[in-house]
Structures are given as C-alpha cells and as structure tokens.
Amino acid sequence: MKIKSSSFERGIKLYQIGINKFLGNSLIRRIESNVFNTNEDLQRILISHGTDGRGEWVDLAGLITPKSEVEKLLGQIESGKLTSSADLNKSFSGLHKSYFEWEWTWACEKIEEEIGITVNKLTATDVIDLLERWKKSVLELDNLIYEDAEKEFASTSMTGFGIDGGDDIRKLDFKNVRGDFQTNSFVMSIT
Fold it and tell me: Which terminus of the chain has fewer CB atoms gathered within 10 Å of its CB, N or C?
C-alpha cells in the first residue's frame, strides 16, 4: 500500500485535533465546578488520585473502560466471585460510575506527554494554553464537519433524484427529501 505523504500528514493533523479536543473536554470537566484562586488550588484540583485508568482502554459492548478493569471483572467471573446477572450488572454500573475519574487519570498521563509538564505543576497559564488548543481544535473540527455536510448537498449528490424529470425536477425532489443546506438542522447545529 502507498500513502501519499500529504495524506499521512493530514491524518496526523486530524488525529491531533481529536486528541486536543478530548483532552480539553476532560480538563474542562475537571475544573468547571471548582473554585480556585491560586496555582496551588488549581494543582490540587487537577491532581489525579490513584493509577486506575492508566494504560490501554477497551470497548466493552459500548462501555469504554480500562482494560485492567475488564481483566479484574473477568477474574471475578472465572473465580466464581460474580455468579449472577445482578452481580454482573452491579459491576458494570461501578465501571460506568468510575469512568470520569479513570478518564482523568488517563488524560493526565496524555497531557504530560503532550506538554511535558506533570499536572501537579500546571499553572493557570498552562491550562489557558491547553484550552486555547482545545478551542482551536473544536473550531477546526466543526469546519471540517460543515465542509463535509456541504458535500451532501452538492449537485453530485443528487444522483437518483428526479429521474423522471429535468434538472429543476431533480433539484426540487432533492430539496423535498434532504431539505435545504442553510436550514438543515444538523448544519445549523454546527454553525
């Protein structure tokens, strides 16, 4: 397989946009309901407690969770500690409830990789810089989604519409089925 260097670079850029957005969302969630006046206050809020959440994560039928927690769960099933569907449901509920704390532990590790500073040493200026990255990434992502949505309303997407009529019938048929780009609810939610 050959991948053009421009496509490879674009892929890296898009991946970085996703990373910046995710880390920014996680950071915002961590600080949004807290009050802090000093860098020390901020650092106390940001510090991650424990190591659960570090490492690889897996999709457990739609429940994104640390692989280590799934392995613990499997161990409990295999050892006979969990024997009923109610026990299993309770375990799944516990995994779900712990998601944001574990997510923050994982995000701390990634933030440290991204900027080279441990979260217990971040200052308000560092947080502002991270949030500026987040803001830029959100806007870039919205623009990409908007451009992609615009393609759905291009004349090349009208294939199969108004087959029994001319160009005007095709456009009218398309508009009746898909609507108008400017008033489309999805497009309006992006802008």
Answer: N
